[in-house]
Task: inverse folding
């Protein structure tokens, strides 16, 4: 699992400060999460192949999370993309995007599927062979979802020693990985459990931006591998966090601790701060395994 | 008159290639002309004070000319702008922008005036004490205007020698500059023409992007000081220019020559070209006083 932070700052784009956008690579699929203004340039800078992006998840309709989407779609079109593009975002996003394309008389030559969200309960919105994505309803000024990406159907691991003893032809190993019983070279039926180990533990990534402190999300985050939780403010500005429905670094850490996640990533910093070391220090008092997101930072998990 | 080219490339934003946006400074006013994605960052890079931008002119509703507008307006709002902002652009631009602000529940705390254009004849759309702006209807795939910015009401120049001989008190010089007759220290009426020279020649700047070759604009461009005329292609790609309703460098030069402008600036280069020297060479065969626009280039006129 590889996470590329394209931008991790809130609201005000400024030189060297990119707004929200991330690329999650998992099980050979890549997902674009949020798409602030300028995201297409950041994808270029990070050498992400446009054609690999097939699914885009937009948390909410504040500009710093989606103003780059229409430009990215237009660019895909100019590059003669043919692959379908699936967009998951709040109800209304379809009209906002299509009306802009329509005004430019610039329809896409690929299929653009919008999956508009309005539920306020968690919902599984994407499922492929090895990945499942669900919404995490968040508590912000407008309708907002986080997203949790989970590995599913991980292959079982072959117990090489046992499989050889049982004289299973190597051609059947894939069947074993998928959990099937097989016949060996003596035409005896071998139970899957006799020659395999459990699959490795599944990994999961939860993206929670933007939200005020809200313990109702903890259940969904339980034991997740990596949690990105917004920390727009430091605790000394908790009043601002409350009035704008954002979180502090301390609150992000409290969520991480209560959910027993493995790693917490902070981000969505307010432009009032020039350095982020205090965010790290503040969070570490509560939850030790925490790192700061930075623009163009790759995090291998 | 000072022109800052923020971006001069067409359609496909890529690293180091910004899309259309320019700042024209003239008579202490500044005008933003087109506003492609990322313009707000380029304004920062070029140290243009946001609060000085009061009038924005959008040529047409292709993304590379206005996708940065909604982000810029949002940023103005976050920065607690109070000054009115006037936007001149094609019919439809108001809804496109306001619907995005509405979706984010993020109304501006300043007055946002839209002047939506639909005329296909030249129209004076802005007039202040010293500047007048008119549309230049262009011929592109969708409704498009160029804009011509002209100095007006330039002050007369005092004939210092004659004014002293006529014993005019220096306190009256401003009246003279404005063209009035005045009374001298002996209470004699002095005709303005006796003690002034004509004002210096007015300067004008014409912005023509995007358009196919169209001689109908020449009359409006006659003798203008500086013409920015798009040159998306080289002459060897004239078929592409025709099918996409763009111009070649040669065609831009032909317009400049026929309109007898003083200086031609080329731009809006297609991303198929890696170097632009050929654009200059091609244009110079027709019209000598030509320069290339470059991102973040300042042209003092």
Result:
């Amino acid at each position: 699992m590889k996470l590329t932070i394209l931008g991790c700052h809130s609201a005000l784009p400024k030189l060297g400060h990119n707004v929200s956008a991330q690329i999650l690579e998992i099980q050979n699929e890549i997902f674009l999460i949020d798409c602030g203004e300028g995201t297409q340039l950041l994808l270029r800078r990070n050498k992400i192949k446009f054609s690999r992006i097939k699914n885009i998840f937009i948390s909410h309709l504040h500009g710093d999370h989606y103003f780059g989407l229409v430009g990215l779609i237009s660019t895909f079109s100019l590059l003669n993309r043919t692959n379908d593009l699936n967009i998951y975002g709040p109800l209304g996003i379809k009209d906002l995007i299509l009306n802009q394309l329509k005004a430019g008389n610039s329809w896409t030559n690929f299929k653009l599927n919008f999956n508009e969200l309005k539920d306020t309960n968690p919902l599984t919105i994407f499922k492929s062979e090895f990945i499942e994505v669900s919404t995490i309803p968040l508590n912000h000024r407008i309708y907002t979802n986080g997203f949790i990406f989970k590995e599913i159907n991980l292959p079982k691991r072959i117990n090489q020693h046992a499989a050889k003893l049982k004289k299973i032809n190597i051609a059947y190993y894939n069947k074993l990985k998928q959990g099937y019983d097989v016949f060996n070279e003596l035409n005896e039926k071998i139970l899957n459990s006799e020659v395999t180990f459990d699959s490795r533990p599944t990994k999961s990534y939860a993206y929670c931006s933007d939200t005020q402190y809200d313990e109702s999300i903890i259940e969904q985050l339980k034991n997740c591998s990596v949690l990105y939780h917004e920390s727009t403010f430091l605790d000394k500005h908790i009043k601002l966090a409350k009035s704008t429905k954002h979180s502090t670094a301390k609150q992000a850490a409290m969520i991480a601790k209560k959910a027993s996640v493995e790693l917490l990533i902070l981000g969505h910093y307010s432009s009032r701060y020039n350095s982020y070391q205090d965010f790290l220090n503040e969070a570490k008092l509560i939850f030790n395994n925490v790192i700061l997101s930075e623009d163009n930072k790759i995090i291998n998990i």
Summary: The CA atoms of residues 123 and 210 of chain A lie 18 Å apart. The domain at 2-154+200-300 of chain A is CATH 3.60.15.10 (Metallo-beta-lactamase; Chain A).
